[in-house]
Batch of 2 targets.
Target 1
Amino acid sequence: MSQPDILLYTANTMNGWKPLIFLHEAEIDYELVPISFAKREQKSDWYLKLNPNGRIPTIVDTSNDDFVVFESGAILWYLAEKYDRFLSHDPKVRSETLQWLMFQMGGIGPMMGQAMYFQRIAKPNGHEDEYAIDRYVNESRRLLEVLNTRLKGREWLAGEHFSIADIATYPWARTHYWATVSVEGLDHLNAWFDRIDARPKTQEALQLPEPRPSAFGEGDIEAAAKTNASNFKNN
Ligand SMILES: N[C@@H](CCC(=O)N[C@@H](CS)C(=O)NCC(=O)O)C(=O)O
């Protein structure tokens, strides 16, 4: 059997799922290298040579001189161009797709990420900051409202097809439970969740490298929260 082009270093997190969703939706063979946060592999010397930010995900394209791509948005863009999937050739739709991809990378991800950090990592490790929690939870809700408005009367974030904008945004918005951000009353957003919840390839990708039901408010939340708080104690 030939070696797949793409080597993917990732974990079961909101950013980590993005390339998995792309590769499963596009039905592309790849090699998965799970990164252990418990062992802090993302901060090891060998990994920092690939990803100077010490975070996941990262890909290596073995068919392109072992070209390395880090930053999940750049990874999706690279894969979209390499495989000609999920990024329109129409200049306006393409720009809109990239606008919503940037909106996720610059807004939804950082705000929801900090909402999660202050509640799921700082607080259980003895640094409680209610002002920061309120700020990030409220800002996250505001951004989900922006998505909700965008999705009124449309199926996907950009153009008429599922795109890398949807792939980037779904794992964050869909784990609103973990950030304690309410999606009540956001009917268009919830309908978009339903549409992507019904995509078998996306759901298959969300089980990798291993299932994480707690992020979606299922399973043993207490145990998962404990492990999460301990893994990131020193971040
Ligand atoms: N902007 C980066 C953020 C990556 C990121 O924050 N990844 C998290 C998981 S969602 C991570 O690796 N955390 C481990 C750590 O902070 O050490 C991207 O989109 O790739």
Target 2
Amino acid sequence: MSTTTPNPPSNPLPWNPHQYLLFQTERNRPIHDLLSYLRLSAHPSFSPTRVADLGCGPGNSTKLLTQYFPSAKEVVGIDSSGDMLSSASKVIPELESGPEDKREVRFSLGDVRTWTAPEGKKPDIILANAVLHWLRHKDRIPTVVRLVRNVVADGGVVAIQMPDNYYEWTHRAMREVAVMKGVPWEGCFPRVGYSEGESYTEERPDLDPIESMEEWYQALNKGHVLGNVQMLVNGFA
Ligand SMILES: C[S@@+](CC[C@H](N)C(=O)[O-])C[C@H]1O[C@@H](n2cnc3c(N)ncnc32)[C@H](O)[C@@H]1O
């Protein structure tokens, strides 16, 4: 694993790979959705050799990326959490054994807001699954525009997915139960309870509202940013 110095992380929360992977099956579902959609919609001649997984976490999304696109010979995973990267480095041997020649796999510290590929090595696929909602609102669209304009290879694909479920009934119910009074768990969850409508919380970038489809359309389509690059947005779950 290479350890280039990252910019200050965009989110202050520590990440626990063990805890994260306890729910790997559930967490992987949107990745399957996005990658299946990408594989089905890609031109039959699309055969990516370089792929990048930005916000790769413990490598679960990187692993699926190589399974869906076994032609990938150079695989890069970037994350701002050293703990997540340490966990990701454990899957390197599995990822390196490509179907034919050996694959080159690298996990590095980096920031999705500023990462670029080395000269002449633009990725054919950039995957950013469940990471962009960790950027502040002001950074989110500019980051994607930069990836599309400057970072992905010509004719490549930028595939993104971000959850937007904080105000879904399931999540509301969890918060309501967590802060109940007169129950055995009373006081166990003191940090629950950012209330609805609270739009800016210093330590929770993921609660900044996700931009509407129209905003994305204006930024990407009307500005003719896309050019020869495909953009896959896996509806906001
Ligand atoms: C919810 S996990 C997603 C992991 C994996 N991509 C997946 O789909 O399951 C979010 C990851 O994004 C990383 N992250 C958050 N902000 C980042 C940034 N600005 N640059 C790079 N990684 C970032 C976190 O460290 C964390 O590992």
